Amino acid sequence: MINWSRFLSQVRAELENASYLEVRTPTLVPCGAVEPHLLALSTTAKIGSRRVTLELPTSPELSLKKFLAEGLENIFEIKSSFRDDEFGVNHRIEFTMLEFYKKNVTLEEFALQVVELISTLFENRASTQTHAHGQHPSLKGAISSHAFVQSESSPQMPTRTKECKPEVVFDSVADLFKSGTSFELNPEFFCNSEATNAINATPRDYALPAVSSDGKQYLKNVCTKLQLDYNQDDSIDDLFHRIWISKIEPNFDPKCIYLIKDYPPSQGALAKLNSEGWSDRFEIYFGGFEVANAYNELFDPVQLKERFRKNQEERRLQGRPLSGIDEEFFEKSSGDLEPCCGIAIGLERLFCAINGFEDLSYFPLATWEKKLRQDE
User: Fold this and answer.
1) What does CATH list as the number for 1-139+299-376?
2) Which residues of 222-249 are buried (b: 16+ CB within 10 A; e: fewer)?
3) How far is the CA of 17 from the CAs of 10, 20, 39, 72, 346, in angstroms?
4) Are 3 and 126 within 8 A, CB to CB?
5) Is the pLDDT of residue 48 over 60?
6) What are phi and psi of 152, to 5 degrees?
7) Burial of 327 (0-12, 13-18, 19+ CB in 10 A)
8) Cα(20)–Cα(114) distance, integer angstroms
9) What is the per-residue pLDDT for 87?
10) Cα(274)–Cα(14) distance, rounded to whole angstroms?
11) Mean pLDDT of all residues in the chain?
């Protein structure tokens, strides 16, 4: 764990050198999860004569945004976060989240700063050749310059040796979707799932209309043509993720850093929409991991409340527990706040990506969790 400790210290130092202020947020909160697919762990506490339900945060997002609303500008936190129903080699119930926020910056400018941080961490990575399981196959060399590559016809990158410098690939969800499936993707698909127009053309000769009247049926037909199974009650985002995980993600070269922008509006969480109708956010993939998720932050209180209402309705439809409500967050978001961008980074994943690990096995499971997973 020495290398992990050094890594955390370096992350903290880089952000402090960039004039970010480290803050501390609560671990028991009224609302622990924003997005409907996330489940927060909860507990009860006795306060006076009342017993209240509190949640462990899936990220410190809401609490950090309260600091922004109070006037702080560039802030960060490294915090344990918790997610229920997380299972897999790259998932943990408890993990370490880095979140940082910067005001008065565009998403494009913010993206370059994030890439610079990751590149610096890669260049200066601690001596990670050995660990509990023996010799570590670390990447060799360091990034001396960035190769900014725009994907053209395919997201698949050429095979590289360990000595090659990681390239930074900037691309969009729609372009990667078209490259990986031969189908178009339009933000209007995700705005109306009740219409009835179906698509019957083949991938190579299908011409996209300006606005699809039934995006959900469209993606079902895409799944059928790509021979992907789906459930009739899948949401439009379920269908999208089936295609994305099967046809797009496998093409990513783990030795490249992918910065992917313009996500479907239904996956906006608390990000603004851009002028084209996409969610104004990006995700970063590196080393076979999805390591980061960044937003052009939404602070309009009316829109925020509507997003929360829709998320609660989606939870009801999925039969999932409703999340708590953080009224203080809405109250503090009602002011005239400056433009702001923020990012959440899974630090265990980033550490493993930088040091060449293929999964999170560097971080051993607790004995009780290992036993439960073996019983599954």
Assistant:
1) 3.30.930.10
2) bbebbebeeeeebbbbebbbbbbebbbb
3) 10, 7, 35, 17, 21
4) yes
5) yes
6) -105, -80
7) exposed
8) 13
9) 66
10) 30
11) 83
Contact 67, 23 (CB under 8 A): yes
76 in Cβ contact with 101 (< 8 Å): yes
The residue length of the chain stands at 376
Instruction: Tell me the per-residue pLDDT of 232-257, one tens digit each, with 9 for 90 and over.
Output: 989 899 999 999 999 999 999 999 99
Q: pTM here?
A: 0.82
Least confident stretch, 8-12, 138-142, 253-257, 305-309: 138-142
C-alpha span between 331 and 34 (Å, rounded)? 16
Q: Please give the Cα distance from 258 to 167 (Å, whole number).
A: 8
Q: Tokens at residue 269, please?
A: 């969480």
Domain chopping of the chain, boundaries: 1-139+299-376, 143-254
Contact (Cβ atoms closer than 8 angstroms) between residue 99 and residue 61: yes
Alpha-carbon gap, residue 182 to 188, rounded angstroms = 18
Query: Tokens for 78?
Result: 């490294």
What is the tens place of the pLDDT at every residue in 80-101? 999 987 666 778 889 999 999 9
Instruction: Tokens 């971080």: give the residue.
Output: 363
